[in-house]
Design goal:
Elements: E1 5-15, H1 21-31, E2 35-39, E3 52-53, E4 56-57, H2 68-81, H3 104-125, E5 127-136, H4 143-148, E6 151-155, H5 159-169, E7 171-174, E8 183-186, H6 191-204, E9 225-228, H7 239-259
Length: 261
Amino acid sequence: MAEVQTKVILVGLGGATCSGKTTLAKHLKSILPNSVIVHQDDFAPPEELLPIKHGYQDWDAPDSAIDYPRLSNFLKHVKDTGSIPDDHRSHDHLNKQTDLPIEEECQHRLAERFRVIQEQVKESDHINIVWGLVDGFLLYWNQEVIERLDMRFLLRVPLKTLEDRRKARQVYITAKQFHEEGDAWVDPPDYWEKIVLPAYLDAYHEIFESGDVENGGLTNKVEGLVLIEPEKEGKKMSMTDIVERCCQELYQLVRAEGSSK
């Protein structure tokens, strides 16, 4: 009997702050067998290394907000071993999350669909699929991190929606190395205007044609990037719709994995 090989599929779930990427990751985890979530926010550098801009610590600048070598090495470990390192601690559970449920029928149907096909792939092709769901607001900035990902999704939400959500949320629990509870960060009143928005425009201007983060088409910066626009005029999507859309792509990926043997 052939030995079963573990195949880790890393799925990128990118988008601006408050775009819904972490909520999406949690829904996908409830559907995909053998899945884990990796939060890019857990790889922020120590706060004393962050730059000061306009008198504020800048947690959003694409070139300094994430320790990319550490994140890349972490993803390599997940890819090689199919597991999260035992000493990894995430602070995401401490952050306030908006409850955006999906239809129960959808969750059960998709979970069963993936359970069946992954069992088929395991039996016929001797491949045990493990999913790594990687969410982050700067997921498509660093090329080495991009290349670690097998599937890449990007949520694009209107700037006004992002601003409203960010200002309503305000309090974040930031990563603090060797301290699993993290630290609380409260946005100053003009943090969106002075820090968050300029950083978002900087991080995404090469991903969209003419740097138009609102309406521009995709450039070729990120190969195979799947753009999802929940609030595009005339095509508003619920969280159920978004999950369905992602699962369509992921299901085809699993089918291709089985047929490639």
